[in-house]
Amino acid sequence: MTRRIGVLVVMLGVFLTAWAVPLRAAEDRADSSVQATVTVDATTLYNAGTIALERGAFGPSITFFLAAARIEPRAPDVRANLTNAFVAAARAAGDEEHPDDPGAGPFPIAPDEAWWIASVLLAVGAAFAIARAMRGLSRTARWVGNGFLIVGIALSTCLQYAAWEEATHPEAVVIAPTLSVERGPEEPSRPAVLLSAGERVRLGEARGGQVEIRLGANRIGWATREGLWRVADAPRYTSRFQPR
Questions:
Q1: Residue 159 and residue 118: Cα distance in Å, rounded?
Q2: Helix, strand, coil proportions of the chain in percent (round to 5)?
Q3: How many whole angstroms separate alpha carbon 87 and alpha carbon 44?
Q4: What angle do CA 68, 47, 204 make, to 5 degrees?
Q5: In degrees, to the nearest 5, what angle opens at C-alpha 214 toward C-alphas 212 and 90?
Q6: pLDDT value of position 177
Q7: HSE-up of 216 (CA within 13 Å, CB side)?
Q8: What is the spatial distance between Cα 200 and Cα 175, in angstroms, rounded to a whole number?
Q9: Mean pLDDT across the chain, nearest whole number?
Q10: Least confident of 15-24, 85-94, 111-120
C-alpha cells in the first residue's frame, strides 16, 4: 500500500510537471521578447528577409529567415527563401556548390509545439502509471504507458539541452561582407579565419566589443560583435528593411 501511494505521488508530480513545463518555457520566451524590445510574427520576419535578399544583404536576410523558421518551420515560402539566401550568399563568397537545404529537417516543428508534445507524452505515461498503481493494468497497457514515459523524458531532455545550448551559445549569423576571426590572447599564433556573410556560428564569452566564435562545439577565435546578428535578436532589425 505504501509503495502504491509513493508511485501515485511521483506520477502525480510528473503529470503536473508535464503541463507546467511548456507554460514555463513560454514565459521564458516572453521574457526574452521583452528584453529584445520588439516582438514580431513570422510574416514580418519573412518580409524583412525578402527585402534584405533583394537588396543583396545576405547576412541579414538569412538571419530573418532563420528567425521566421523558428516560428513557422513548415512554411514552404520561408524554407524556400532561406535556401535561396544561402545559395546567393555562397555564390557571393565564390562558392558555387549549393548548400544543403538548411530549413529541412526530419521533424520540422516549432519549439512550442515540441514542448507540448513532450508534455502530452509525459502526462499520458503518468496517467497510465497512476491507473496501474490504483487498480492494475494489463501487461500490454503497462508497456504502452512505459513507452509514453520514456519517449516523453527523452524528448524533454533533448529540448532542455537545445534551450541550454541556445542560452549559453546563441546562434548568430555573419552580416559583414567578411568577418575576421582572430586568435585569443592566450591562444597559440595562427592565421585569422575569414567568415563570409551569411555563415552561421555560435557565440561564446563576450569581452568588450569582441565575442568568442564557435563552429559547432569548437572555438575558433574572437571577432567583433558588430559583424554578427543573433538570430534571437532578429525582431530588433526588421525596421531597417521595410518597403520603400
A1: 9
A2: 60, 15, 25
A3: 22
A4: 40
A5: 115
A6: 92
A7: 1
A8: 10
A9: 80
A10: 15-24
Query: Apex CA 217: angle with CA 88 and CA 189, to 5°?
Result: 90
Structure pTM?
Answer: 0.78
d(CA 30, CA 39): 9
Q: Please name the residue that has the C-alpha cell 555563415.
A: 199
* CATH numbers and ranges of domains, the chain: 171-240 (2.30.30)
C-alpha dist (Å) from residue 114 to 19, 69, 106, 224: 13, 14, 13, 34
Q: What is the Cβ-side half-sphere exposure of residue 83, based on CA atoms within 13 angstroms?
A: 14
User: All 3 cell numbers of residue 41?
Assistant: 510574427
Q: Which residue matches cell numbers 538548411?
A: 102
CB neighbours of 147 closer than 8 A, spacing ≥ 6?
125
* Sign of torsion over alpha carbons 153, 156, 160, 165: positive
Sign for the pseudo-dihedral over CA of 14, 124, 107, 31: negative
Buried b (16+ CB within 10 A) or exposed e, 152-168: beebbeebeeeeeebee
Terminal-residue alpha carbon distance, the chain: 73
The pLDDT tens digits of the residues spanning 174-230 come to 999 999 998 776 666 678 889 999 999 999 998 888 999 998 888 889 999 999 999
What amino acid is encoded at 38 in this protein? V
Higher pLDDT pick, 183 / 76: 76
Rounded to 5°, the CA angle 177-180-183 comes to 165
